[in-house]
Each structure stands twice: as C-alpha cells, then as structure tokens.
C-alpha cells in the first residue's frame, strides 16, 4: 500500500503555471474588450461598465483554478504515486504496484512499464536468492565430507588401508570443490559476455573424438560402447568453449548409461547449420524435468543427480546461446536421453 503524500512543490509549481497562464489569457481578453470600449467600437453604460469587467475577471480566475486543479490532479498525482512506488522499490519491496486504470494513455503505459519492471526485478531477486542457497548447499556437502574424513585421520591407530581410503575421499571432494568453483566462475564470465571471442576454424569431428577419449577410463569401466558417426567437419568457433559443451554432454551420457550400454554420437549437416546428437540408453528424463534441465543447479530427476552440481547443462546452454545455436533434449522415462546441439555455419 502506497503512502499518500501532501501536495508537493511540483504540484504547486505546476498548478500555479496553469492557473497563471489561463488567468493571463482571460485578462488579455478582458483588456481587449476594454480597448474596444475605449475606442468606442462597443458601447456600455458608463455607470455599469466596471461590472462586466469584474465579472469576466472573476470568471477567468475561476476557470483558471478549475483547469489547474483538474490537470494537476490528472498528471501530478500519478507522478506522486510513482515516486512513492520507487521509494518502496528502493527498500526492497517487490510487491509494490501502480494502478493501470489511468485515463491518460501515457500515464497508463508508464504504470504498465513500471509494473513489468518490478516483476522482472522480483524474478531476478528470487533467482539470486536461489543461487546463493544452491551454491551454499553445493559447497557445504564436500566441505563437510572433507572435515569429517580429516577428523577421522586424527586417529593414530587407523590402519594404512583406512588412512588411504580417507585420504582418497578428501582428494575426491577437493576435486569436486575445484570443479564447482571453475564452473561457477566460467558461468559468471559467460553470462556477462554477449559474443564469442577468439573464433577460428578447426575440425569439429576430431574435437568430439578427443572429448570421448578423455573419459575412456570411465566408459571402459562400465563396458560402454560408442556408436560414432562423425564425418569430417570444419567449424569456426571458440575451440575451448565448444570443448566444454561436448565434455559436459558426454560426461552426462556416460554417467547415466547402464553397464554394457551404447552411446550414439552423430553429426548431420545442412546448408546453413550442423547438428550434433549424443544419445544414451539411461533411465530417461521426465517431461517436467526436461523443461528445467538447463537451469542453474536444477537436479529435479533423482536418477540424474549422481556426482553432479547442476551447472554442466547450464554452461552448455549459455555457450550454445552465445554461438547463436540451440540445444535440446528428447527423452522419455525408460528410453534414454538424446541431446542435440545445433550450430550455425559461417557463410563463405
């Protein structure tokens, strides 16, 4: 609820100008008639000649007051309400709204734009709060694990096997913290970036093969096979950023594929675009999860949470967006997931 304020200096200044203007106009008309009377163009009984002039002067002042008050009410009061709304907004009140039922179109549009701005700011505030909560949670888990295993290591009677196991867990959680920090920093940098820098032509098919080989130890451990269809393809882009795209999607595919599964990687090309599809045979993704899967820290599907921090696909989405491309997922529970990245080809 906006606080009502007394008439401001702006109100007095604005209405005063209108009143003075209207009154001056009527005074000029009065002087015009007075001049006509002096020039004997019109005649009035000398005994009552001052009465019409005084009446006209009083009428002009009345009209001036009425117009000034009316216009001031229509223009100044909405501005006062908007000023009060901005005061509330500056205090962090994102529930403040301005009535949009004003008769003056410009005022109505101004109110609509203000309300839209407040809605956007409210959403940004919610996202920022969620981001802080999620980051705190993602940091807390590995830090708690490190602290717990470090405490256990203080027991000098531990066997060498247990000691090595605890050290391995500490190193594992330290690695998770390092990956999380790197992902947050990269995502923050990319969100403040509008274009892809340092673009150059390179072999996209070879890059994807290299990314697959980076995870050889993991897919060999699960006895996963790769069905690869990658024809020779030159692509002009930022090689380092695109490596993040393929690494994150391939990492997810390996993570969620069953033992002895197959991951299919294919590349198709049209005259203006190319499309890379990476499909696994995992548990699949529910439709409601697919709608949010590229959001930061979103991990709505418990079957796809293992060893993740919810930033990988958000990074993929941001990088592909900067490349003027698209990324999509096609999946259903029990039928695996296929991620397709579509990128524009540079002309010439």
UniProtKB/TrEMBL annotation:
Cite a single Pfam family from the UniProt record: HATPase_c
Q: Which UniProt keywords apply?
A: Kinase, Membrane, Phosphoprotein, Transferase, Transmembrane, Transmembrane helix, Two-component regulatory system, Virulence
Reactions mediated catalytically: ATP + protein L-histidine = ADP + protein N-phospho-L-histidine
Q: How does it sit in the membrane?
A: Multi-pass membrane protein
Q: Which residues cross the membrane?
A: 12-39, 51-72
Q: Where does this protein reside within or beyond the cell?
A: Membrane
- All copies of the Histidine kinase domain together span 134-347
- State if Kinase is listed as a keyword: yes
The record, for SMART domains, names:
HAMP, HATPase_c, HisKA
Domain HAMP: residue ranges: 73-126
Please explain the role this protein plays, according to its UniProt record. Member of the two-component regulatory system HssS/HssR involved in intracellular heme homeostasis and tempering of staphylococcal virulence. HssS functions as a heme sensor histidine kinase which is autophosphorylated at a histidine residue and transfers its phosphate group to an aspartate residue of HssR. HssR/HssS activates the expression of hrtAB, an efflux pump, in response to extracellular heme, hemin, hemoglobin or blood.
Name of the molecule in the record: Heme sensor protein HssS
Give the originating organism.
Marvinbryantia formatexigens DSM 14469
